[in-house]
Design goal:
heterodimer, A: 5 helices, elongated, B: 21 helices, 0% strand
């Protein structure tokens, strides 16, 4: 049962990451388009600047969970690297319980409340283009949720590595 | 609890909890949360609302948009195989002199340092490219690993570099804008690379067994005209890219973010010309870009939480009092700050060091009337050591990951020691002659 859960979470975050990674292409594209419009045709867009930052924000936020799944976030494993795998797993479980889960459960909860406030106000950016920014704030909350479930999945896998029946 | 005790306790807690081996960004956020709650009387909602605002601020930071773009540019360039061509031509041009292949590595890394902004890719690419050649010619293993690790690390100092983009994003003051930092880092970067060059030349001439030259037949296979043509042909594409990216920033016609986008386009076109583009290649480059970007940005999130709590608690004033109020000589204060960065560099990755120390040290440096731009570059040059100093030198790990099995971690550790000393020597030169840093920005931006 838990096996299925972690496999599902991992698969979901892997796919999400692989798709969000492609956002770098429109991001680069818009920056280039804006440069050409401004410097070649002397006709800057009113949306280029904001569209750029929005895509950049969505890109890295959606990438957080994927990078965690791929073990890409920096760790200082100077002491833990020399431990036996079971001890390493124990340390990972403790760290998740004490640090990750409390902080990022709260972070997820309050980022949802932050986003919902924005949705209720139908918040727009105070610029001449004035795009809606509540969808971006929703993505922020969604991204933290993905990171949270990825952390839970990693912890469950560490617990599994701890159980006596496991040879690894 | 008094403010002083809280400040010290926050750092000690950070250092102790780092040893748990948890993701560093999570640990930073965790320590920030603990002390933030103690400081604000356990107002959980207040603290996390502030965090949400912090993250939203990062998502809207236009300067930092250059981070993924420069990383993407480096990934595409890595695929374009232009470094291979340059190394091959320098192999025959410089190979004839003692230590020549090592010198070729330094030159290739210096040129590509100017086109890429990340070190992982540079060390891996250079390691894969040069290690077999160095081994075949019988280079001493310590020497070979030192050359590759130290030169590969130049990528993050010589602009464009995401280290400078992050620095600018952290400070947000005019003196340390991306453009100023890029201009300021050029000569110090070239200084380090010439020091490496000189060192290798000297050592290999004193003791040719460290780095023998290639055989006469191999060196004389090409005529001088052929050699010149080969070098020019392989140097032209990267130089054109550098000119496009740096030129548009320095001429003031494009922001660093725009220049990064154009650089990514340029790298893509180079890869197209070299017939290295396919959908799987682009997909691989995109995924590698996302991983590096998300890694840096999560550290940014954790680091921002940490420094916001630290500052709102008043920790910044405690540190400033310690350095400024205590009547400490300003150069002594400077040396202590540099020493702290050097020591942190043995354990923590450069981005985390910047994120924690810049918000604290920068106001102190300004208070002590150090030139902010010069101080920023000193920190960045100092951070070069963080890639090489054991036990935690990231360049060493990247290199060990791809080096042939004959290379033990001890070879690598021994090999980098002289280069760390050269870096510190370079730092001392910049302290004695600060105009090496400030001259170029003043010429370019006319301040």
């Amino acid at each position: 049962m838990l096996n299925k859960l972690t496999t599902a979470i991992d698969l979901f975050n892997r796919k999400t990451g692989e798709w969000s990674a492609l956002l770098i292409i429109p991001l680069t594209g818009i920056v280039i388009y804006e440069v050409i419009m401004r410097y070649v045709f002397n006709a800057p867009t009113i949306w280029g600047f904001e569209a750029t930052t929005f895509i950049y924000g969505i890109h890295f936020m959606l990438g957080l969970a994927y990078t965690d799944l791929m073990d890409g976030h920096v760790k200082v494993d100077i002491f833990t690297a020399r431990m036996k795998p079971r001890k390493q797993a124990a340390m990972a479980v403790i760290a998740s319980l004490v640090i990750f889960l409390p902080v990022f459960s709260c972070m997820t909860f309050w980022s949802w409340s932050y986003a919902i406030t924005s949705v209720q106000q139908q918040e727009l950016n105070s610029t001449s283009w004035a795009p809606a920014i509540w969808p971006i704030k929703l993505i922020m909350a969604v991204s933290f949720s993905f990171l949270l479930i990825q952390g839970i999945s990693s912890m469950l896998k560490a617990i599994r590595a701890l159980s006596p029946g496991n040879k690894a | 609890m008094s403010l002083e005790i809280m400040t010290v306790a926050m750092f000690i807690t950070l250092i102790l909890s780092i040893t748990l081996g948890h993701q560093l960004a999570f640990t930073l956020a965790g320590v920030a949360t603990l002390f933030g709650l103690i400081d604000n009387g356990f107002n959980v909602s207040g603290l996390f609302d502030m965090y949400a605002n912090n993250v939203w601020g990062l998502m809207n930071n236009y300067t930092l948009v250059a981070v993924p773009l420069f990383i993407f540019m480096a990934q595409l360039l890595d695929q374009s195989k232009v470094a291979d061509a340059l190394f091959e031509s320098l192999y025959v041009v410089l190979g004839g002199i003692k230590g020549g292949l090592g010198l070729a590595v330094v030159v290739v890394c210096t040129v590509f340092a100017a086109t890429t902004g990340i070190i992982g890719a540079a060390v891996v690419a250079m390691g894969l490219l040069a290690t077999p050649a160095l081994m075949k010619k019988g280079y001493q293993k310590e020497m070979a690993s030192g050359i590759i690790c130290a030169s590969g690390t130049l990528g993050i100092l010589i602009p464009p570099s995401i280290m400078m983009v992050i620095y600018a994003g952290l400070t947000g003051i005019k003196e340390t804008s991306v453009g100023n930092l890029f201009a300021g880092a050029i000569l110090p970067g070239l200084l380090l690379s010439s020091l490496y060059f000189g060192y290798i030349l000297l050592r290999c001439n004193l003791n040719p067994s460290l780095g023998p030259s290639i055989s006469r037949e191999e060196a004389l296979k090409y005529t001088r005209a052929q050699k010149i043509r080969m070098t020019l042909k392989s140097l032209l594409p990267p130089l054109a890219l550098i000119l496009m990216v740096m030129g548009s920033i320095f001429a003031g016609i494009a922001t660093a973010t725009e220049a990064a986008g154009m650089g990514a386009l340029g790298a893509f076109l180079l890869a197209v010309v070299n017939r290295a583009v396919s959908w799987p290649v682009i997909r691989t480059a995109s995924i590698a870009t996302l991983k590096t970007t998300a890694m840096v940005m999560l550290l940014f999130i954790g680091g921002t939480f940490f420094s916001t709590v630290f500052m709102s608690m008043g920790g910044g004033d405690v540190v400033a009092d310690l350095f400024v109020g205590s009547g400490l000589n300003r150069w002594a204060a400077f040396c202590i700050m540099m020493l702290i960065i050097f020591i942190l560099g043995m354990f923590i990755d450069w981005a985390a060091i910047l994120l924690v120390t810049v918000p604290i040290f920068m106001p102190v440096a300004i208070e002590l009337e150090f030139n902010p731009l010069w101080f920023a570059i000193m920190m960045c040059v100092n951070l070069q050591t963080s890639f090489l100093t054991p036990p935690f030198g990231y360049a060493l790990f990247y290199f060990k990951g791809i080096a042939p099995p004959e290379y033990t971690i001890m070879h690598v550790y021994k090999g980098i020691i002289p280069f760390v000393f050269i870096q510190l020597f370079g730092l001392a030169i910049l302290a004695l002659f600060p105009s090496i840093v400030t001259w170029l920005p003043s010429v370019i931006f006319g301040r």
